[in-house]
């Protein structure tokens, strides 16, 4: 550490030093006189022109000062110290008497302290931080202030003012750690990473070499956290951090940004083509399952990447681009990486625009519902319908849900929109029933955000009371992933079924569910995902999966609905395996409420399937 200050003592007489005052070097010099080493008390009293109590003041400073100071001769040996130093360095006064100050010093402080002493003997005052070795062997941080002891205008020794700053240094180091490191994982935090990234970009720019910034997100981490608890979630993050760190050659190149998000810097790249191999490595370290309380958990990550070919750009821009690319990966299905491209910034702006317009759309009642009928495969009659939200945009026309639902989920608007969908579907169904049409249930999808709301049951109950619809004519569809936390899901579903609402699992076969724990949940129906139905005629594996789902669901007293049925042959296959219901374009596409009302009014509204007798 650099010297904080040195100044030359010009032409000080011994009398002048004694009378300079107690605040600073002169007082410390004067206090040494109490040793009888420089002046006798009699001589001092003869020369002093100050108050009568000045000698007593100097004596009190020497004996009772909370600050330690030592008298050192021209050879650097201890002559005296004003207080017992054992609590500071472990050595007593007697042990230090006559030994060299240098013997206490840590190796890294010896040369610089020697130089300080030389300059002090030349008339300077200096301040410096040093390290000494305690008698028990550990290092101690001290701050020393040195000043010359002068008699007859020549230095005869020096005074060393000593302060133990070990606790202060530890506190400062702890503050620094808290400012730059994540307390849980021990990884650098966002601030540290940004500072380091600026340095790396400058180095890459000087060398004309590529550098990549990765923004990493743990897929479905919130679901894992909800399923196993926050303590296990923290343990998982520690293990993930350890694996990712092993994939990076330089310590400090990985940082925890917040929550389940990490950032990494990839430099020392020979070419941009090398980036793909490094990213594949980051993805591959997640292949082996993690173990939480004896339960193996498979985890994947999504990675957004921003590349600077020659180190140009700043850290904030690079990280923003990587984050934008990460969002695109998550929209596209996760468990992958993607490099930032210029069009992504435009898409991100579009997403913000959509979120703003959706808030306006909720206020202006621009959302409408379409309904897709569900047919009984045994009779061909309509036995239910699914409510599907559409956006009637004033400028863009009818906007399909795939364009605005992701933005609604990300912004949290999905909760408000979802509540509107449930209420409107119940209101419309009750209106049709009052008009004498079929009394059939309407099914509505629940988002994860809705499902995890504590007051979900009370909100559903209030909607049913407000619309007058009987609970048995409302079906709520949840996804398989919502049932991972079996205990919580059981509680929520139990409350809903006690209300009289039925529950179905949507897109069955694409998530995490197993019949082992589904049997313990109050599930009325399974909806086979359209991806299996689509290829049942071409792929024997899909046909076998569909047949197995139907069989096992029936054994658990659950009904089965096949989604995405588009051909007559698919309908025949499903009927032959006793699938209960079908939904898809073969029966009917989603229809506006007016068109569905007409369909429900028809006496024969079934699709053209033979053998309905």
Features:
613 residues, Beta-Lactamase, Alpha-Beta Plaits, 24 helices, 23 strands, Nucleotide_cyclase, membrane, transmembrane, transmembrane helix, Biofilm_reg_signaling
Short description:
This is PAS domain S-box-containing protein/diguanylate cyclase (GGDEF)-like protein. The protein has 613 residues and is of the alpha/beta class. It is built from 24 helices and 23 strands.
Verbal overview:
There is one protein chain. It is built from 24 helices and 23 strands. The protein has three domains: 5-170, PAS domain (Beta-Lactamase, 2-Layer Sandwich), CATH 3.30.450.20; 183-340, 2-Layer Sandwich (Alpha-Beta Plaits); 374-389 and 412-601, EAL domain (TIM Barrel, Alpha-Beta Barrel). α15 packs across α16 and α18 (456-467) runs parallel beside α19. It is an alpha/beta fold and 613 residues long. The radius of gyration is 39 Å and the shape is elongated. Mean pLDDT is 83; it is low at 7-46. It starts with a strand and ends in a 12-residue tail after the last helix. A hairpin with a 3-residue loop joins β15 and β16 (397-399). The strands form four sheets. The chain has an eight-stranded mixed barrel, surrounded by four helices. The longest helix is centred in the middle third of the chain and has 23 residues, at 342-364.
